[in-house]
Specification:
Blueprint lengths: L12 H6 L18 H15 L3 H8 L6 H8 L8 H7 L2 H14 L1 H11 L3 H12 L8 E2 H10 L4 H17 L7 E2 L12 H7 L14 H14 L15 H7 L3 H15 L1
Antiparallel strand pairs: 1-2
Helix pairs in contact: 6-8, 6-14, 7-12, 8-12, 8-14, 9-10, 10-11, 11-12, 12-13, 13-14
């Protein structure tokens, strides 16, 4: 899976306060291999407790955490963004996403009409993201999410960013919205449209109105994605191709130009 630029938020006092947590002074030292990971985890647990995470949540969340070597390997080798646009579209199965997406748009017309009415986002880009991220919910990842996020928080390359994600994940576990042993994508992305934990906290929506936010639910995932795009500047009725009003919001979803253009192209074909 890939890291979304819209999900690249600095670990800040404002973010933690929005999560209902205090802002601890970080003293755990990052590292670039597995050697220091166990000591880092023990130090982080103390800091999480001081930040307001319950002892029960900490105990449950870290019970099965291991250094995620596969996550580090994938983080160092995100090669698909180096492809040309045509190569990227082929690799992602764009034609299949368009074909299936048109059928899903018809089959779920009431849901997509309601989302557009509420958030101003038409079906096309939502379906494009849904298809590209998880094959319309068929595969959302098989990596131990707590291990992945904790490993990336420990890793020096983007420690501050993933520390925020780790605190957000602990909050989701504390709320009962996520299992400590939940499995997702290699960088900790969650659900059918692959939100990182801090974006579940910030933009998650209870689309099926069952009292919790679960991005394994199609309604929750699509409503949260629409809310994310609106939160990144989506304007009702505006175009979303490169150079148009809402392409900026699509840029918020992913840092890679080929990915942004793919969402716009696939979405336009579905919305025809």
């Amino acid at each position: 899976m890939t890291i979304k630029s819209g999900k690249l938020m600095l670990w800040s006092a404002a973010t933690l306060l929005a999560m209902g947590l205090s802002t601890p002074a970080m003293s755990a030292q990052c590292g670039n291999n597995s050697a220091g990971f166990p000591a880092w985890i023990e130090q982080f647990k103390k800091e999480a407790a001081r930040a307001g995470i319950s002892d029960r949540t900490i105990s449950r969340a870290f019970a099965n955490v291991r250094y995620a070597s596969k996550t580090i390997s994938l983080d160092r080798n995100q090669r698909s963004f180096k492809l040309s646009f045509e190569q990227f579209m082929q690799k992602r199965g764009a034609n299949s996403i368009i074909s299936q997406g048109k059928k899903l748009k018809q089959r779920n017309a009431r849901l997509f009409n309601a989302l557009e009415q509420k958030y101003g986002v038409p079906a096309g880009p939502l379906i494009a993201i849904w298809g590209m991220e998880s094959g319309f919910g068929r595969f959302s990842g098989n990596q131990h999410t707590m291990s992945a996020v904790a490993t990336l928080a420990y890793d020096c390359r983007r420690s501050a960013f993933f520390t925020e994600q780790l605190y957000a994940q602990l909050q989701l576990i504390q709320k009962g919205w996520l299992s400590p042993d939940f499995k997702g994508a290699a960088h900790g992305e969650i659900g059918q449209t692959q939100f990182l934990p801090a974006n579940v906290v910030r933009f998650g929506v209870d689309g099926d109105r069952n009292g919790s936010i679960n991005l394994g639910s199609t309604a929750d995932a699509l409503a949260s994605t629409a809310n994310f795009l609106r939160g990144h500047g989506w304007k009702r009725g505006g175009g979303y191709q490169p150079g148009e009003t809402n392409f900026r919001a699509i840029k918020g979803w992913n840092a890679a130009g080929v990915y942004q253009k793919a969402i716009a192209k696939i979405g336009a074909e579905i919305d025809r």
